C-alpha cells in the first residue's frame, strides 16, 4: 500500500466510523421520540399535556374522577364479608412498553369479586415511586393488578388492586423475574415468555384497603375504575427498583403520574373484623 492509499484508507475508515456513530444516535433519538407520552414535568408530552395529545385522551385533562389521589380522611367501614380473590397459575408474558414493565397473563389467571361482580386478572405493572400517597406519604414503588369484567352490563368494568412497597428486603415475586427483566433493558416493545406465573406469589393479600372510584393513571385515563389500595406496605430492595428504572426508557424512570384533585370523592377504608387475612 502506498502512503497515499494508506492515508485514503484511514480517512475512509474514520468517515465510516463517524457515519455509524451519527446513524446510531439518530436511530436512538427516533426510538426515544416515538414515545406517545412521557413523565417529564414541563415536557410537550408530559403529564400536564396528556389530555391534549389525542382526542381520546381528553379525560386526562377534563375528567373529574382521575387517579392517583392522596388517600386521607377516609370513611372507616368494616368488611362484613371478605371479597373473594381467587387467582390461578397461568402462562404469562413480560413486556417492556418503554414507560413500564408489565406481566400479562395469556390464559385464565383467576379473578376477584367486588359487590358480586367478577373481574378477571389480566396484567400487572409497576410504578416507581408510588402513584397513590397515604396521608401525604409517597412510597418507593406501587404494583397495579388490573382486572376486567367481561359483563357488558356492568357499569364499572375495570378494577385495579394497588400494592405499595418501601425499600427494604427483597421482593420474592420480582426476584423470580430478575433475569427476564434484565434481558429487556431499554428494549421498548419487546417481550419475553415467562412460562407459568402464579399471581398468588405476589402475596397481595391485605386485611384492610382503601377503596374509591378513579381512573387509569396512564392515557387514555378512562374513568369508572374501582380502586382498592392495600394498607399493608410490602418490601422491595433498592436493586430491584433500580432494575425496573433501568429497564424502561429514560423518560419513564420516574413513572408516577402526579396526584389528581379529589373533587369531593368518598374514600372508604375497609377494615377486617376477622383475625386472619383472606
Ligand atoms: Zn398503573
TrEMBL record:
<comment type="function">
    <text>Reversible hydration of carbon dioxide.</text>
</comment>
<keyword id="KW-0456">Lyase</keyword>
<dbReference type="InterPro" id="IPR001148">
    <property type="entry name" value="CA_dom"/>
</dbReference>
<protein>
    <recommendedName>
        <fullName>Carbonic anhydrase</fullName>
        <ecNumber>4.2.1.1</ecNumber>
    </recommendedName>
</protein>
<keyword id="KW-0862">Zinc</keyword>
<dbReference type="GO" id="GO:0004089">
    <property type="term" value="F:carbonate dehydratase activity"/>
</dbReference>
<keyword id="KW-0479">Metal-binding</keyword>
<dbReference type="Pfam" id="PF00194">
    <property type="entry name" value="Carb_anhydrase"/>
</dbReference>
<dbReference type="GO" id="GO:0008270">
    <property type="term" value="F:zinc ion binding"/>
</dbReference>
<dbReference type="InterPro" id="IPR018338">
    <property type="entry name" value="Carbonic_anhydrase_a-class_CS"/>
</dbReference>
<keyword id="KW-0732">Signal</keyword>
<feature type="domain" description="Alpha-carbonic anhydrase">
    <location>
        <begin position="35"/>
        <end position="271"/>
    </location>
</feature>
<dbReference type="InterPro" id="IPR041891">
    <property type="entry name" value="Alpha_CA_prokaryot-like"/>
</dbReference>
<feature type="signal peptide">
    <location>
        <begin position="1"/>
        <end position="28"/>
    </location>
</feature>
<dbReference type="InterPro" id="IPR036398">
    <property type="entry name" value="CA_dom_sf"/>
</dbReference>
<comment type="similarity">
    <text>Belongs to the alpha-carbonic anhydrase family.</text>
</comment>
<dbReference type="InterPro" id="IPR023561">
    <property type="entry name" value="Carbonic_anhydrase_a-class"/>
</dbReference>
